[in-house]
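Researcher: First entry.
Model:
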Amino acid sequence: GTQIWANKIKDYPIPAVVVHAKGKSYEVKDAEEGKIHVVDRDHISAMKSTSINGVEDMIQLQDLHEGSLLHNLKLRYDLGKIYTFTGSILVAVNPYRYYNIYGIDDVRQYEGKLLGTQPPHIFAIGNAALDNIAKMKQNQCVVISGESGAGKTESTKLIMQYLAAVNPERSMITEQILEANPLLESFGNAKTLRNHNSSRFGKYTELHYSKSGTITGCSIKQYLLEKSRIVSHQDGERSYHIFYEMLAGLSTQQRAKLSLSAAENYYYLNQGNVTSIESKDDEDDFQRVQSALEVLSFKPIEQEAIFRVLAAVLHLGNTQFEIDSKNNMETTQILDVALTGVVAGLLGISADGLNENLTTRCSVTRGEKFVTPLNLEQAMDTRDALAKALYSNMFAWLVNRINSIIDKHSKAYSVGVLDIFGFEDFQVNSFEQLCINFANENLQFYFNEHIFKLEQAIYDKENIDWTKITFSDNQGCLDLISKKPVGILHILDDESNFPKGTDEGYCSKVTAEHKSNPFFVVPKTRSPKFGLKHYAGSVWYTVHGFLEKNRDTLRDDLKDLLTTSSSPFVSELLKKDGVSDSVRKAAGASGRKRPTVASVFTTSLTNLIGTMSKCYPYFVRCIKPNNQKSPDYFEHTLVLNQLRYSGMLETIRIRRVGYPVRIEFDSFNFRFRPILKGKTPPREPRAMAHAILSALVISSKDSWQLGLTKVFIRESVERELEEMRSFALFHIVVTIQKHVKRWIAVQRYRRILRAIVVIQSFSRMQVARREYDRRLGAVITIQAFARMIKPRLEFVAVRDERRRERALERDRLRAAGQRSVGDVSELVIPDELETLLKNWSVSSGPATLSIDAIAELLDGPWKKYTYPVPEIPADVAGHEFSKFVSGFFQQGSAWSFTRGTLTQTKLKLKSPELEDLALQLFNVIQRFMGDPSLNDTEEMIFAVYLISKCLQFPVLQDEILCQLCNQTWLNPNDINAERGWLLMALCLSCFSPSERLHPYLLCYVTSHGFEGYKALCQQKLLRAHQRQSRSYPITLLEFVAAAQQKPMLMSVKLPDGTSQDVMIDSTTTASELGNMVAQVIGIPHPSGWTVTGNIEGKDTKMFESEEPVLDWISQLELPPAMHKLLKASRQLTPGISTKATDIGGTAASPDNEQGPAANLFKQLRTRKPKSILLTEGSDMEKQIDTMFEDLLKDNEEEEEEEEDTSHSHNGDTDALAARIQGSGAGVPPPPPPPPPPPPPQFSFSAQLGAAVPPADAAAVHPPPPPPPPPPAPLSQLISASSQDKSIVEAKNMSDSTVTAASRNSVDFSSAGINALKNQIAKNKGCNYNGTS
C-alpha cells in the first residue's frame, strides 16, 4: 500500500501503489491507468508527503520531476482546484465547466492580500499586479498563454472583471472597458475543431491607472485577424460568431430590411455543416452585443452601417459565376445579377459597377485604360478578396472606434493583459498557423528571457552565488522564421513581390536555404510543404495560398468603387488598410504600396515584446486537460506535453534556487525599516538591509542574498517581511494613537474645567436675573391689565354695535330684495309648481303653526344648542370639486356662476325628458335664490317641489347638487349665495349624493361653505351617507331650522305623563329615537326600542325600525294638492329607481299603492305589529294580558305541574322583564352614541309635541346635553308643535312589545316598571318580588 514513483514504465516517473514484493522486484498498480506492472527495486522511489497530499505551490514539491508536477495537477484537478502556483506563475487547468469561485466574496478575499497568502486563483495575479504598481511604481503586464482551447479568453475576462471590481471609483469607463470584451469576442472569435470559442486574433489590453490607483482609460491593440475564416473554414468549424448571432437575434423586420434568412442559406457560413453550438445561445449573445454597442456609445447610424456590411458580406458569398466565352476568350458572368444588386444596395454603390469589377480587371498603363476579363477562379478570388477586405477593415475600424471611446490618453501606470491565439497544429496548417505559432514562439522567448536569461544575467552582474539552470532555448527557431535576410517570412515577402511568384517556387527556395537547419524539417517525399521544430513540437505547413494570403491585396478599381459609396461608413472603410503609419514605415511600405501581412505581423510582434519588456510580468499558463472538451477527464500525456514545452520543470528549478524578488537597497530599507523596532540602524544601505534580513525568524539564511545594488530574496521571505512590517506598523500606530489620545484627553479635561467655572458663574447670574425679570414682569402685567380694562370695555361696546349694524344692514338688504344678481322673476317654472302655488294648504301636523311661530320657538331655551365641529375624514382632502368637474361634467358644461337659464345639464342624463326636467328645476333654483318677491310659504313650496322631484327621479339628485355647487361658487351676492346654501342643506336633509360625488361634495362644503351652513351641510352629508333617501320632502320644522342653522329637538311623551326631549336630525329613525330615549332614562345597553305615532281620531302609526320619523310628519303636512301631484307622478313613472340603475319611479304614497314600491310598503305594513296602542277607556290589564298571551299561556301550563309556584312565578316575571327590556329575538339596529347619564327622576315621554317644552321643564327637568355623534354628531334636533295632539310612543322591537298611550299612560320609570310587572303577575295569580 506504499505510494511510490515508478520509473521505466513511461518516459517519466508515474505514481503507483505497491501491491506486493516479488523477490528483487515489486508488483505495483499504476495510479494513472490502474494497470499492474512489475518494476525492479532499483527503479522505484518513495513518494514524499508533498506529492501524496498535493501542494498549492509546486516549488514546495520535494519530488521534483515531470511526474510529480503532473500528479500534483491531477490531484488538485480531481478536487475541483483548477489553479496552482509555481512561484508567481499561475497554472490554470481548463475544467470545461463553471465553478462558483468568481463572486464578489471571492474578489474581497483576494483584494489587498499578498501573493501566496491565499489559495491559488486568477484573482491573486490581478491583485499582485495592482500591488506592484503601488510598491514598485512600474507598469505591469499579465501574459496569458497556452494551446487553443486551454481557456485563455476566459482567463482574460476574469482578470479584467477583477481589476474593474476592485477599482476604487465606479465610473462609466469601467463599464465600457468590460463591454468591449464581449463585443470583440463576437467579431473576432469562432468555433474551431479544438475550441468552441477560439480567439482568431491577438489582443493586448492595456488598462490605464492614475497615481491614486483608479482606472482612467484603456487601449486595445489587435494582431493578425484570421481573414481566411471569413470566406472558408473546415468541416466541423464555424465562421465568426457575429454572423450567426446577427441572423438569430435580428427581428423579422430587420432581417427583411437586410434581405437575410437562415444561416444554412449562406455559403460563407455553411461550409463546416455546423451553424449552432450546443453550449452557446446566439440570440442572447446578440442582445449582449447590442447592449455593448449602446454602452460604448455607438451611434444608431453606426450600428446600422455595421449590420449592413455584415449582410453584404453574406450576400457576396452567395454570388455565383459561370464560364462564358467572348471573342475566343474565356470570360465569366454572374448567375444572379439581382443578388449583386442587393449587395450594391447594402454598400451604397452602383450595381453595374460592382458586376463589372467582379468579372473584369481594369488597369491603366501610360494613361491608357485596359479592361481584362477574369476567368472563373480569378472572379471567385476577387469576390473573396472583397469580402475579406470589408470584414477585416471593419474589424480594425471597430477596435479604433472602441479606443476612441475608452482611451483617454492619460495614465501614470498601466496593467497590460495579453490574450493571443494559442499554439495550433492541425492536419492542414497554412499561413495563419505559421503566424500564430510564430507569435507563440515569441511569447515563449519572452518567458525564457525573463525567467532564465535575464535572471541569470542579473545574478552574474550582482555577484550572486548560485548554480546556473539549463533550459530549452528557442532563439534558433525564431531566427529561422524571422531573421533577415533569409528567414522564412522574409523569403515569403521577396517571393510575394514578384508578380509571377508561386507557392511551389517559395517552398523550393525555403527548403534549399534551410534544409540543414536543425529547426527545419524536410519532407521525405516531394510535396509543397515543410516542417518546423517549435518549442511545442514539430508542425508541417502546406504552402498552398501562402503568397496570396501574404499579399492580401484588393484591386484599386474595387477600392475606387467603394469610395463612391453613398454611405460615409463604407466610403471611408477601405481608404485605410487598418495599419498604423509607424507599423507601415517599419514594415517597409511606402506610397500606395501596401505592406505584406508577414512584415506587418512581425513588426507588431516586435513592438509588443518591446512594450512588455518595459513591464514587470506575471505569467498565466493555461493547460488543456483533454481534446474532447469534456469535464472531469484528464489526459496525462496531453498535459505533460504542455508542461514540457512551457518549460515548467525548469521554471520550478530556477524559482527554487533563484531569487525572483529583487529590490534596490534604498527602496528595501525605506519599506522594511520599521522591522528594527526603534534600534538605530546602520547608515550604510547594504548594512541596514543586512540588519533587517537578520531579523527574520522563519526564513533561512540561504533564502536571501545581498547583491551590489539590490536585495535578492525569495517569495517566502517577502511574505514574512511584509507580515513583520505590518505587525511593527500596527504597534507603532498604537503607540502614536495612545499618546495622541492622552494629549486630547488632557486638553479636553482642561476645557471642561474652564467651562464648568464659566457655567457656574452664568448659572448664578441667570437665577438672579430670572427672579428680577419675574418680579418686573409681574409688575408690568398688573399695570397692563389695570390700564386695559377701560379700553377693552369701550372696544367691546363698539364691536357689538358694529355687529348689530351689519346684521341690520343684511336684514335690510334681504327685506329689500337685494339677493338677486339678475332678473329671475320671469324665469319659467313647471306647471305643476304653478298649480301648487295656487292650491297650497296645510293638511295637518306641526305645519299648522306659522313659520314665524316656529322661528320664535327656536329662540327659546334651546337656542344655546349648536352643531359641534364635525370630524371630516382625512382622505377627503384630495377630492377638490374641480377634479369632479373635469372628470364627470359633460363637454360644454362649465363650472361657473350662471345668471340666467341653463342650456345644458351638468351631468349626462339617460333621456332627453330627464334633461328637460333638470333644466326646469334649475329655474326653480334660480327663483328660490334670487326672486325677492317670494314669501316664506312660497319659498317652502319651491323647496318641497324641488326635493319631491329629486325623490321621484333619483337620477336627478347628483345633477341638482352639482347645479347648487355651480350657483354657490364665486357668487357675487352673499345673500343669493346664502339662499343657495340653504337649498343645498334642505336637499341633503332628504337624500345624499352618490358614492362618486360624496367625497367631492364634502370637500367642496368643507372648503367653501357659507358661514353656519358649512357645519350644517357637513353634518347632513356625514349623517346621511350610505343611508336610504327619505320618502317624503322636508317638513316646515326642517325648513325653519335650516334657515336659522339651529338644531331640532323632539319631545317624546311617555305614558306616565312625563316627556323627554331628544335631539334629532332629518334622518333619525324610529329605532334610533326609541333607543335614545331608553338610554337617557337609564336602561343599560338599550337595543330594539322604537316609537309609534298617533293623531287623535286617526289610526296609530306603526313605524318600521329604519323608517325616518320626520317622513311621517312630512306626510301629514303635505297638502292634498301635493299628494295629488305625487300620485299622478307615480302613475306616470311606475317602478323603483336607484342611483346605480336607470329604473324610473318612486315609492307609493298612502293614497296610491301601485307598482313595486307600493308592494314593498304593503308588505311592510302587513307584517304583524310588534306594539299595540293603548286606546282611551280600555282595560289596561286586559290589553297587557293580550300582549303577552302566548308567553303567559306557556307559563300557566308549566305552573300547574310545579309545586313551588312562587319560584316559578318569579322566574316568569324575570323572563318577562328581560323580554320587555329588549332581550327577545331579532337583530336590533345599532344604538346611538351614549349621552351623558340622565338624572334619576327622568322617565319616558311619548308625545311628539310642542316646539317649546312645558313651562316648568327648564326648572324641573332641564334638557340633557346632546349626545356626541357616531362618526359625526347628529343633525339638528328640534321639537315640534303640541297642538296637533299627535303621539310618538316608545316600544321594544323584541318578541314582547310594550307601547305608551297618550291618555292611559304607563310609568316607565324604575318604579313604574316594577308596578307593571306586579300587575301582570297579579292577573296571572302570582306575586312579583321586585327584582328586574
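Researcher: Second entry.
Model:
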Amino acid sequence: MRNLLAFVLPLFLVSSYRFQPTAFTSNHFLAKTATPAHHVSSSTLFSTTEDKMPAVGQGFGGFTASNSENRRVVPESPGDRPVFKVVYVVLESQYQSSMTAAVKRINAGSKNMAVECVGYLLEELRDAETMKAFAADVESANVFIGSLIFVQELAEKVVEVVEPLREKLDAVLIFPSMPEVMRMNKVGSFTMKNLGQSKSVIGDFMKKKKADDGSSFEEGMLKLLRTLPKVLKFLPSDKAADARTFMMSFQYWLGGSPENLESFLLMIGQDYVEDVVKNMVGKDKIVAEDPVLLPDKAIWHPVAPSIVFENVDSYNLWYEKEHCVDAGIDVQTAPVVGIILQKSHINTKDDTHYVSLISELESRGARVVCIYSGGLDFSGPVDEFFYDSSGNTVVDSVINLTGFALVGGPASQDHAKAVKVLSKLNRPYMCAVPLVFQSFEEWQSSELGLHPIQVALQVSLPEIDGAIEPIIFAGREGATGRSVPLADRVSLLADRALKWSALRIKENKDKKIAITIFSFPPDKGNVGTAAYLDVFSSIGAVMNELKTKGYTIEGMPDTTEELIDTILNDKEAKIASPELNVAYRMSVDEYQELTPYAGDLEENWGPPPGNLNSDGQNLVVYGKQFGNVFIGIQPSFGYEGDPMRLLFAKSASPHHGFAAYYTFLEKIFGADAVLHFGTHGSLEFMPGKQVGMSGTCYPDRLINSLPNIYYYAANNPSEATIAKRRSYSATISYLTPPAENAGLYKGLKELKELISSYQGLRENEGRGPAILNSIVSTAWTCNLDKDIKDLPPVETFDGKTITFEERDSIVGKVYQRIMEIESRLLPCGLHTVGVPPTAEEAIATLVNIAQLDRAEDKIESLNRQIAASIGRNIDDIYSTSNAGVLADVELNEKIVQASRAAVRALVMESTDGDGRVKEVKSPLDEIGNFFGNMIGKKRPYVEAIIDGGFPKINPERLVPLFDYLEFCLKQIVANNELGALTNALDGKYIVPGPGGDPIRNPDVLPTGKNMHALDPQSIPTTAAVECAENVCKILLERLYKENDGMYPESIAFTLWGTDNIKTYGESLAQVLSLVGVRPVADSIGRVNKVELIPLEELGRPRIDVVVSCSGVFRDLFINQMNLLDRGIKMAAEADEPLDQNFVRKHAIEQAEELGIGVRDAACRVFSNAAGSYSANVGLAVENGGWENEEQLQNQFLERKGFAFNADKPGMMEQQADLFKSALKTVDVTFQNLDSSEISLTDVSHYYDSDPTKVVQGLRDDRKKPMSFMADTTTANAQVRTLSETVRLDARTKLLNPKFIEGMLATGYEGTREITKRLRNTLGWSATAGEVDNFVYEDANDTFIKDEEMQQRLLNTNPNAFRDMVTTFLEANGRGYWDTDDDNIDKLQELYQEAEDRIEGV
C-alpha cells in the first residue's frame, strides 16, 4: 500500500499545474430540467446596444460591477454549532451559486456545524480596498480554497496574504494554479511543498504514453481521478487518508454542483477544522457520498430525455427521429453546426447562454451537435462525435464556445495536435468568447473591450489553432455570477456560422463573391493599393482559378491592362467624378432602410448622401460586376484632407458612402463572401473596441454577417491580427517579393571598381596614391562625406602625403559604406498571388536565411562556419569591418560571396531549364548523394565554398545547415495562396501559420496560411533580450562617445506590433534594458514579471524612456504595456542617486511640476485612444492636407497622448500634460528596422510616429534631439543616425535603377510605388528634418531630367506621376529642397502636362 501511495502522489504533483480543468470542467452528474430549446425568455438575454445600458466604470482592474459581498454567506441561527469560515478565490464566477447553495444547505440541515463563506474573483484583487477586505477575511478564516490562479501578479498577491497564515489555517486547498500557489496546500499531513522540484517516474510515463498513443496528459489524469479515491479509501495510514481527502476534495470541486460542494465542505469540516472536530467527539461522522460523474466526453442537448449521449448513433436516433421532427428541422437539407461546450456549465445548470445559441440555430432550420470534454482537451470529442460511423464529417461549421484553445487550458496548449485534428475535420472553426474577467456592463462601457488577460488566453491562443471570429456571445450577471447570453451577439454568431456553412453546401456556380480593393491615398492613380502586391495581375489569377472551379464569371478581360481599364473605366480620370466607375446608385431612402445605423453617422457627416461617394442625390458604389463576381473599390476614411478631423484625438465614424458600400455588398449584390484584396484597407481600423466588438462597433456593423476572407502580406501579422479580431476576417498570407541585394550603380559602382584597383596597386607609390585621390573625389561626388565624417576634403587632399595605414583606413571606410549599400536587401517588384518564386528569387531568400544563427535548432550560420574555417569569429569580423578596417571589409565580402555561391549551388541541384525549382531532393538525388559520398565526392555547395577561397571548411559541420536550407527551399516554392482561397470559399478550414519575416522565421512559409501572431505572454524571449542588450550597448557607447562622455538622460521610443512579433519582443526588451529592468518568466514560462537590475551590475545610469506604442501594438500587447509600466515605475521608486537614475530624477521633477505623486508622474507608456490608430501625420502628408509642421506636431501630441497605467489597467487616459512633460526631457529619439521588406520610406508609419521635431518644440532649449535607428535586418546589427538611414534607404531604393526597373516592370502599380517612396521621404523632412538636399536633387535627375524615364512614368500612371511632380514642388515650397529655378519651371510644366493628360486634353 505504501508503494501505491508513492506511485500516485508524484503523479498528482506533476499534473497539478499541467492539468487545467477545475472551474471550467466540472464532473458532477446533474439531473437536468428540460427547457424547450425554442422558448428561451427574452428577459434572460442582454442586448449590447449601448444606449440601453447604464454607463459603468471604464476599468478592468477593479470589478466595478461585481462585489465579493454578493458571495458572502453568514449563518442566520447557528445556535451552539461551531461555525467555521471558508474563503475562496476563483478565476470565474460560475462556482458562486453552487457554493452559496451548498453553504446554505449545511447551515439549514447540519446538526454538527455551520459555515460562514465568502468568495473573491481573482481579478477583484487588483483593487486595493478589495485586497484589504480579502486579507481581513483570510485572517479570520479556517479554510482557504483557491482554483485556477494563473495570473502571475495576482498569484503573488494571494501568496502574500495566505502564506503567512498557512500554519494557522485548519486547511488550505489549492486546485490547479501556479506552482507557488499550489505549494501552499495543507490537508492534515498532506502538502505540496516540493511541487515542481522533484522528478516523477509517473510523469515520465505519462509523457511516454502521450508520445506513444497521442493521448493527452489531461485525459490520463481524468481516468486516474475516477479510480484513485476508491483505491485510496482502503489505505490505513493517516498520510494516505489525508491524501485521499485531498483527491476526493478535488473530485468534489470538479463536480461543482451544490450537492458535491456540500459533501466537500462537510468532509473538510469534520476532519480538519479544530472546533468542528472537537464537537464531533462521540458523534457519528457523516459518510460522504462519492462524487457522481458525467462521462468524460459526450454529446449534450438541453431538451434530450437522457442528459448525454456517448455515441453519435444514439444521439442521431433521438435527434433526427424525434427532436428535428418536433422542431420542424429538415434533416436532409439542414446545415449542421458543431458546438464545443464547457462541461462545468452543464453540471451547474449555468447553461442559458448555450441554450440560447442552440435555440437560435435550430429556429433557423439548422441542426446542432453539441460536445464537451471532461478536461480541456477537446480533440478526442471532435474526432469521436463530428464524424459518422463511416468516417464522414457530419458538421458544416464548428463553434467553440469555451473560448479556449482546442487542446489545453490557461497554462499549456498543444497547437500542433489541434491543427492536425482541425485539418482532418476541414471545416470553418470559430471560437466565440464568454466574458470571464469582466461583467457585461464593464465590457459594454469599456473602450478597450475584452479584458487583456482574456485576450491573451482566449483570443491569441485559439488563433494559433486556426480559430476565427472572436465574437463575445455571453456576459456575467453581476449579483449571481451566472452566464447570460447577449441577444444581438448570439444572433450575429448564428448568422455568421450559417453563412460559413452555406459556402460548403452551395454550388460554386451559384455563389456570389465580392472582391474589395483599396485606393489609398484616394486618387485614381492609387486604385488597387496593397503592400508589395501586384493587385490587378493577382485578381486576374484569382478570377481564372475561380472560373476553373465552376464559378459564374462573365465578361472578364484577357489581360491585366484591360482589367485595369474595365474596373476603372478610364484610369486617367479622377475618382472624385461620380460619373465614372459607378456599379450602383443607392437612393437615400434605400440606404436608410437597409443600413440600421445610418442615423448614427450624421453626428460626424451630416445627413446622407453627403459629399463622399455621392452624386449629390444618391450614394454611389464604385466597381464592376463580372457575372457572380463583383470587384469594388472600398471608399476612403473620408477625413484624409481635413486638418481639423485629422487633429481629433479619436477617429470619426465611417461616412455614409463607406457604410453604403458594405450595405450594397451584403444586401443588394447578395455576396456569399467578401475577399479583401491585399494589405490593407480601412474596415478593420474603423472606431470601436480594440477586441471583443459590440453591436455598436463600426467594424462589426459594417461587415455584419458577411464571411470575410482577407489576403494579407505574410510579413505583417500584427495588422492581419487586427483584421481577424475587429472585422472577423480569415486571413490568407501572400508572399512578399524575395529580397535581393541592392547592388551598385553610377558613381557607387565606379567607386567599387576604383577600390578593386587600389587593392592591387596599393603599394605602388606611383599608382596607389593617384587611385586613392580618385576614390576620395568620387566619394564626395556620391555624397559619402555625409556618412564618413573624416573623409578628407577633395580640394586639398593628396594621397602621397599620408602613410600606407592612413590610406588603408580611408579606403576601408569608403569600402565599408559601399558594401553596406551593395549588400542592402530590397524586395524587387511586386508579388502576384499564386506565382511561386523563381530559382533566382529562392536563392536570394535562402542566402539571407543562411546568414542567421538558429541556436534553438542548433544551426550555425553559414558565414560563421566559413569564418571558423580560417580561425576567425564572424562577430569580430563584423565589428572590425563596420569600423572600416580594410582587410576585414575585404574578408567579409569574400565570406559573403562564398556563402552566395554555396547557396546557389544547392538551389541549382533542384532547378529545371525554365529557371524554376523542381522537386527538392528527390529519392534519386538521395541515392546519387549516397554513392557520391562513398567515392569521396563533395556536394556542390562544399565545392563552391572551397572555390571561394576557404579550403578548410568542414563538410560535416555544414550538413545540419544545408538540410535546413533544403527544407526551407521546399517551403519557399510550395505556394498555396490560390488553394487556400478556394478552400475558404468552399467552407473549409484554412491551415494556420505564423506571420512575420520569412528570413527570421521560415515557418512563415509556405504562404496561403491563416496567419496568426504569437502568444503575447511569451515575449520578450531570452534570445530577444540578448539581442536587445547588444543593440542598447552599441547605441549607448556611440552616444557616450559623441557626447563627451555623457549618457543621454531620456530616449523616446516607438514600439510597433509587427516588429515585436517578428523579433519576439526585441524593441520591447530594449526599453526594459535602458531602464535597467530585467523581464522574468513566471513558473510556467510566461513573461509576466520584472525585476530591477542593481546599479552595480548595470554599470551605468538608468536611462529614462518615453514610449509611444502604435495602436496595433496596444491592441496586441497590452499585457506587455503593463509590464513596461510596472518596470519603469519600479525604477522611479528605487531609492537611488538621481545622477544614476534618470527615471526617478525626471519623475520627481514632473511630480512637482504637475502636482501629482511620483508614481503617477512616472507613466511613460503612451498610445492612441482605444479604437484609434496612428497620429494621422501620414494621412496629412500623403494627401498634402497640412498647413505647417506645427499642425503635424499637434496631431501627434493630441492623438498619441493617452497614457497606460498598470495601476488602472484596461483604460487609456488622455494625459497630454504628462506626455509633453516627459517628451521635453528627451535627448534622443529611437526606432527599429527589423526586416528587409519594410524600411523607412516604404510605409508612412515610421515618420507618422517620429517625435523628433515634436521634442524640439517642447524642449526648453529648443535643441533638436539626436535621432537613431537600430537595424537588425541582418546578423550584423547596426545602429545608425536617422539621416544615415534615410541616405542608405534612398540609395538602395528610390535612386537605385535595380529597384526602379523592378517596380516599373509591373506597370501602373509600380509607378505608384515609386511615387509613394518619394512622398514618404518628404514625410521625414516634415517630422525630423533629416533628409539631405542631394536626395531630392538626385531623385529629380532620375525621374524628371531623364526624358525617357519621365515619359515612361507619365504614360504608365499619369495620376501617380502628377503626384510625384506635386511632391517635388511641395518639397521645394516647404523649404526641404533647395534647387535652381530651371528645375522648378520644368516641374510646373510637367504638372500641367499631366493634368492635360488626365483631363483628356
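Model: Note on the second entry: The two ends are 100 Å apart (CA to CA).
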